[in-house]
Design goal:
The chain is of the alpha+beta class. The chain has 2 domains: 33-94 and 312-380, Beta-Lactamase; 98-258, Beta-lactamase (3-Layer(aba) Sandwich), CATH 3.40.710. The chain has helices at residues 6-14, 18-24, 37-41, 51-63, 102-115, 142-146, 165-171, 178-183, 199-213, 220-239, 264-275, 289-295, 364-375; strands spanning 69-77, 80-86, 96-97, 245-246, 260-262, 310-311, 332-336, 340-345, 350-357. A 6-stranded antiparallel sheet has the order 2-1-9-8-7-6, sandwiched between helices. Strands 3-5-4 form a 3-stranded antiparallel sheet. Helix 4 runs antiparallel to helix 13 and helix 5 runs parallel beside helix 9. The longest helix has 20 residues, at 220-239. It is globular and about 70 Å long. Residues 1-25 have low confidence and may be disordered.
């Protein structure tokens, strides 16, 4: 007697309903592998979301080969660390390079100087070369630099790579005095008219801060010390960011567009500072809430970009940097080369950090994984 599998009998009896067809054809998705003890241990019992689901989403960021290499994931919910996991060879004391996440920190530095009355958003910055009679760069405002619409000639990550403006500034002919190289570029658009992402614009902002804080000194040590002391006293110290190490070039300019190093926990502390509207955990207001609102509001020429910060909005041009349509409009992020992210979702009371090494062409699965984590938390 021939034995007929029960599944085939069910298919014959129940007919072509879609669920039955999926099961009959073998199309049903297999059950996921059980979570490891390490995956579960990385998530707190009271995580503000289902623990096993959060552990699964965090685990996917490490296990999915499409994401290349995830080195650290942290989740902060309502001010508490509810998930923390590291790849092999990395841990809480590891310093990770910021790449372009540094831009958001530099924007806060500028905001403090604006709040102190030492800079104005809608005036030209104190750059002597731009103040010569007839120089069109004199029409560039601080606001336009912050929103990546200065109009200066620039090509970010263009081919060949050695012709990219940020590569030339960071590593080739501009490396000893990065701000001077960036500030020497001519105009290619009218100031304010066009969005163009530019690491060089952020180094110009860092130079402006150094000029203000050092009394316009040309001495590299004085410039470096003035900015480092200000950042430590006014920002890093109050936030308890004990591991952060910013880099400076030979002229004493903070490499504020790309080169800071800090632990994953310190990046999370900065994300939480943004989420709280510029306040520390104990309630000290380090920068006005209005400045954080400026940084996280859509700019006139690019809806998904604010002031040195990426927003979860549909892009005006190009591809989305985050996950518009599958996450809250109020979410925003610090984003760095090779898949560095600090996602802040204020309505969800959430900060998510992901650090690692993923080629830019493969970052969409990383972003989708972060969106899945944010989706576990209901908005308020």
């Amino acid at each position: 007697m021939i034995r007929v599998p029960r599944l085939l009998i069910a298919c014959a009896v129940l007919g072509p309903a879609s669920l039955v067809l999926a099961a009959c054809s073998g199309g049903a998705e297999p059950a996921p592998d059980p979570l490891s003890e390490a995956a579960l241990a990385a998530v707190a019992e009271d995580a503000g979301a289902p623990r096993d689901r959060l552990a699964r989403q965090v685990d996917d960021l490490f296990a999915d080969e499409a994401l290349a290499e995830t080195r650290a994931v942290l989740v902060m919910y309502d001010g508490q660390l509810v998930a923390e996991r590291y790849g092999e060879g990395y841990g809480p004391e590891t310093r990770f390079v910021s790449w372009s996440m540094a831009k958001t920190i530099t924007a806060v530095l500028i905001g403090m100087l604006v709040a102190d009355g030492r800079l104005e958003l809608d005036r030209g910055p104190p750059i002597p070369a731009w103040r010569r009679a007839g120089d069109p760069r004199g029409g560039i405002t601080l606001r336009q630099l912050l929103q990546m619409r200065s109009g200066l000639r620039h090509c970010e990550a263009c081919a060949p790579i050695y012709d990219s403006s940020e590569v030339r500034m960071l590593f080739l002919d501009g490396r000893d005095d990065m701000a001077a190289w960036a500030e020497a570029q001519p105009m290619e658009h009218e100031a304010g008219a066009t969005f163009e992402y530019s690491s060089n614009s952020t180094v110009i902002l860092a130079d402006i801060a150094a000029r203000i804080l050092s009394g316009d000194s040309d001495d590299p040590d004085e410039r470096r010390e003035a900015v480092a002391t200000f950042l430590q006293d006014r920002l890093f110290g109050p936030l308890g960011m004990d591991t952060i190490v910013p880099e400076y070039d030979a002229s004493g300019t903070l490499i504020g567009g790309s080169l800071m190093h800090a632990s994953a926990r310190d990046y999370a502390k900065f994300g939480e500072f943004l989420r709280r509207g510029g306040r520390t955990a104990d309630g000290s207001q380090l920068v006005p809430r209005a400045w954080i609102e400026f940084m996280t509001a859509p700019s006139p020429r690019e809806a998904q970009y604010g002031g040195q910060t990426w927003l979860n909005r549909a892009p005006t041009t190009g591809d989305p940097a985050l996950f518009p349509g599958s996450g809250p409009d109020s979410a925003y992020a610090m984003v760095g080369h090779l898949g560095q992210y600090v996602i802040v979702a204020p309505d969800q009371r959430l900060t998510v950090v992901r650090l690692g090494r993923t080629d830019d062409a493969g970052r969409r699965p990383v972003v989708d994984g972060l969106a899945d984590i944010v989706a576990l938390y209901p908005g308020t």
